[in-house]
Task: structure prediction
Amino acid sequence: MHIINNLIMMEDIEILQDWVTARMIRGQYIFTKEDVRAIGLPISDDALINSLVRMRKRGVIMSPWQNFYVTIPTEYKLKGVVPPSFYMDRLMKFMGRDYYVALLTAAAFEGAGHQRTMVFQTMVNGSCIRSGVKNGTRLEFTLRKNLPMQFVHQVKTQSGYMNVADAELTALDIVAEEKKVGGLSRATEVLIELAERMKLGESKLPLLEYFTAAVIQRLGYLLDYIEETDLADALYGLLMKTGKTFRKVPLKQSMPVSKNMPVNERWKVIENYELEIDEI
Result:
């Protein structure tokens, strides 16, 4: 009986693998358990689960999320890991979320080549998604109630397209979420590279509505610090048009402030932190 069961299981795996291979030939690398069920393959629920598990062990597919599967293309067979850019758009649609690739990951797509990391950072709406390591890469999700999707563009990937924050949105996010990029000094290093792609014309005025005055003030201060005077001037002009209240804010939120600390005259930023910038 044990031998017969094993033979049945192997037959189930072959049926499923043939279906997966046929899809891959047509350029369809991503599927869900529901997709398998929808075509009526003659496999029981238990057999389907066992077949998927065995295919994962064989290195045929990977599963970055429950009931969501990615066929591993030939060029990734040796590593057995497919980069998140290959499946992130489909994963977010599977989860029913608006999203955009953000922070250091977006900076890399925007040409900040020195900022590549083993973390894939995504901004999402809705309820919290737990971050974690999936198939060798850490997927890090940051929750945001309102996503400024008009400042997100689509980047072509091997399997389609993916939403990526533009340079200006990335700059603001990096300042707002500086802890998630390695601190304020690291954020400033990213800005040095991002500045080449940034344009702060009138079309960016609506973008500032998604951020507090404090975040914009800190970004302006950092742009002046890295001697991107034109960008700093343009940002200051836009900030004045928003009607946001300008108050003294610490450069580093998590560090204490004392009365004798210098305050930047233009940006009203209290210099309570000494930036340490490596040469790029």
Q: What stands out?
A: The first helix runs from residue 2 to 25. The chain has two domains: 2-76, 84-270.
